[in-house]
Amino acid sequence: MRKNECIAMLLAGGEGRRLGVLTKDLAKPAVPFGGKYRIIDFTLSNCVHSGIETVGVLTQYQPLVLTQHLGIGSPWGLDRREGGMHVLPPYVRQKGGSWYKGTANAIYQNLGFIERYDPEYVLIISGDHIYKMNYDLLLDAHKKNNADATIAVISVPWADASRFGILRVDEEGRVVEFAEKPKKPTSNLASMGVYMFKWSVLRDALIRDEAEPGSSNDFGKDVIPALLADDARLYSYQFDDYWKDVGTIDSLWEANMDLLEEKPSLRLNDRDWRIFTASPNQPAHYVSPSAKVKGSLINEGCVVEGHVNRSVLFNGACVGEGSFVEDSILMPGAIIGRHATIIRAIVGEGAVVGDGCKVGSVDAEEIAVVGSGETIRPQQELKEAEPV
């Protein structure tokens, strides 16, 4: 087996409970995003652009659609004879086995996979976030500091700091304090869930963590604090570009709407950093002569006969004659009947909104959601998001 300097382990087993009906039968990393992609495409594309040729994808919750999407890694150039992409679900071993109990345990259960490549460094990443990052620059900083572990961080609003793992660092960027979702944050420097480790340090830390009876087997709650307590060389890596955790209905909607800004912070048409995905291979979209489309993303296979304003339409979505769609997301295969009104809403994959129906409103505080495969009939009216 050819030795790799750095390999990536991509955590993609997220259940995404806060996305409610959108993840009822779908792993969070497989949730559609941006009219063409699925969330995991961003992390995989980052790996490819960063020169990482070996990626282990750790799946668990509702993996069917995600696994079908990943295939053998062809869209990302990871269909390789050596290295490439490997889907790593939990499995039963001769000495027993279990579901992944936490992020750290998921990596621990795949130590044998990492050992096959005997890397010098291991990158731990998540398939839950929308961002573009050159992991090679992270590795350079890691080497420069001779770090045992480097945590990618981003500054977040103080009001949101209690939702993240929060770090305090010294003037050289060395981590002096780490707290997972603190009630009273002492900093607004948040972990992005992107970790670069020396392989030898990571292996020993995971073995120790697994042997600890009271551990929740999580990087943020257990492994990082333990390394800090042992005075390991932990450093931060400041990231100053677009990054979004799309783990809630509001954040998923907001991230899609961000793409429609006149000068979006996240550019999908950047030829120097393309986001790769499996193509649905559908015909060109059709906009009828009577339709009106403004400030929207319309993907292949769409048929638009109504009005679409500031919205994202995924492949195969249809908007019937006389219908009005505004500030909304229509996921793959969503069908909007005639004379329907969709405002500030997310319509799930394969969902059908019947003729004359209304979903969402300008005044609603919450984003309205129609679940994947759901049908809204004329006598129904969905004004607020389903409970999440």
TrEMBL record:
The record marks 60, 99 as: Could play a key role in the communication between the regulatory and the substrate sites. It comes from the Bacteria. Residues 291-362 form the Glucose-1-phosphate adenylyltransferase/Bifunctional protein GlmU-like C-terminal hexapeptide domain. PROSITE patterns: ADP_GLC_PYROPHOSPH_2. Pathway: Glycan biosynthesis; glycogen biosynthesis. InterPro entries: ADP-Glc_PPase (IPR011831), ADP_Glu_pyroP_CS (IPR005836), GlgC_bac (IPR023049), GlmU/GlgC-like_hexapep (IPR056818), NTP_transferase_dom (IPR005835), Nucleotide-diphossugar_trans (IPR029044), Trimer_LpxA-like_sf (IPR011004). It is an enzyme of class 2 (transferase). Alpha-D-glucose 1-phosphate binds at residues 100, 165, 180-181, 191. Residues 8-261 form the Nucleotidyl transferase domain. Pfam families: Hexapep_GlmU, NTP_transferase. One of its GO terms (molecular function) is glucose-1-phosphate adenylyltransferase activity. Its EC number is 2.7.7.27. Keywords: ATP-binding, Carbohydrate metabolism, Glycogen biosynthesis, Glycogen metabolism, Nucleotide-binding, Nucleotidyltransferase, Transferase. SUPFAM superfamilies: Nucleotide-diphospho-sugar transferases, Trimeric LpxA-like enzymes. It catalyses: alpha-D-glucose 1-phosphate + ATP + H(+) = ADP-alpha-D-glucose + diphosphate. Belongs to the bacterial/plant glucose-1-phosphate adenylyltransferase family. Involved in the biosynthesis of ADP-glucose, a building block required for the elongation reactions to produce glycogen. Catalyzes the reaction between ATP and alpha-D-glucose 1-phosphate (G1P) to produce pyrophosphate and ADP-Glc. Homotetramer. HAMAP family: GlgC (MF_00624). This is Glucose-1-phosphate adenylyltransferase. It comes from Cohnella boryungensis. The gene is glgC.
